[in-house]
Amino acid sequence: MALTQKLINDGNAAVDEMLAGVMAAHPGHLWRPAHAPRAVIARHGPRQGKVALVIGGGSGHEPTFLGFVGKGLADACAVGNVFASPPPQPAVDAALAAQGGAGVLFMYGNYAGDVMNFDMATELLEMEGVEARTVLTTDDIASSPDRAKRRGVAGNVFIFKAAGAAADLMLPLDEVERIARHANARTFTMGVALSSCSLPQTRRPSFDLPVGEMEIGMGIHGEPGVRRGPLRPADEVVDEIMDAILAEMGAARGDRVAVLVNSLGATPLMELYILHARVAARLAQAGLEVHRALVGPYCTSLDMAGASITVMHLDAELTRLIDHPCDCAMFRQG
Questions:
Q1: Which of 20, 49, 88, 111 makes a 20 to 30 Å CA pair with 141?
Q2: Is the pLDDT at 6 greater than 90, yes or no?
């Protein structure tokens, strides 16, 4: 199997070299404690009396997670190796640097390693006298019929956005946690992969997906989807995804939604906008108003070809929070 070509130095050092570049590019938004290089902190978000929203997970999904650290969104991020959970200590370091005496809310995707390590971080924080809670994102409708067992994927963008706005509005920890759970419950994602990705350490495809085939419902680490079959035209792919999302969402005509058409890394904007055209048409047919649309690479899987579609079913509260201004290293609004 041929090696993939990457602009890297040492695959084992790729995450730390990436972080050095991120910090050099965004010094007005981000900083790192000298003793904690895998904890990334917002310069202007954390403040006294504010709930600290700390997100995190494995690298390779950029701009998720560290790109969403900034004023109005996440206060800090714990950074893991490629597709690997951060250990407990960076999560603790991030929380201690960002906390303002009103408690900490950890948010991350529902993966076993993340759950274990962030739970340990919560226990360590409680030993320091800092209250910490967790809300898992579970928006991937293809991964399980049981909402609690689903993976967290690109819907993170909207879910983190709502929780970050609530924290920025200085709401108490109980309210920020409630809003985070509410946002998660109303967010639905499904994706399709057209190729595998390759890790910087190996530079080899992480799984085999023959030319001319696609995987519907594949996860952002290469986890299996609901089925594999021939590659089909974009509109047919969108229809399968939207049929599943609309059936589960159960929105009424006249309701509003936020939409994300997300590249998994290698899929260009041209193809994403072709997908979005069909998504918008299907939502219009369902009588739903698109209040906000994002199109681009927001939650990637290194160099994987493919895309995901996320729909958040808005209500008045979520609409206000999704519209709240934010200023992050890789995402700005308002």
A1: 88
A2: yes
Strand order in the sheet with 70-71: 70-71, 326-328, 332-333
Model pLDDT, residue 1: 64
Residue in 10, 31, 11, 9 with CA at minimum distance from that of residue 19: 31
Q: Residue 68's closest CA among 165, 137, 178? A: 165
Three-class secondary structure of residue 24 per DSSP: helix
Cα(319)–Cα(162) distance, rounded to whole angstroms? 9
3-state secondary structure of 214: strand
Q: How far apart are CA 64 and CA 303, in angstroms?
A: 14
**Does the predicted TM-score (pTM) go above 0.85?**
yes
Comparing CA positions, the residue from 137, 267, 248 lying closest to residue 191 is: 267
As a whole number, mean pLDDT of residues 235-259 equals: 98
Nearest Cα neighbor of 330 from 127, 62, 90 is 62
- Exposed e or buried b for every residue in 210-243, given b needs 16+ CB within 10 A? eeeebbbbbbbbbbebeeeeeeeebeebbbbbbe
- Nearest residue to 104 (alpha-carbon basis) of 138, 77, 144, 142: 77
How many residues does the structure list for the chain? Answer: 334
| Active site residues per annotation | 61, 221
Tokens describing residue 173: 């920890």
Task: Work out the burial of residue 280: count CB atoms within 10 Å of its CB; fewer than 13 is exposed, 13-18 middle, 19 or more buried.
Answer: middle
**What is the chain's percent helix, strand, coil content, to nearest 5?**
35, 25, 40
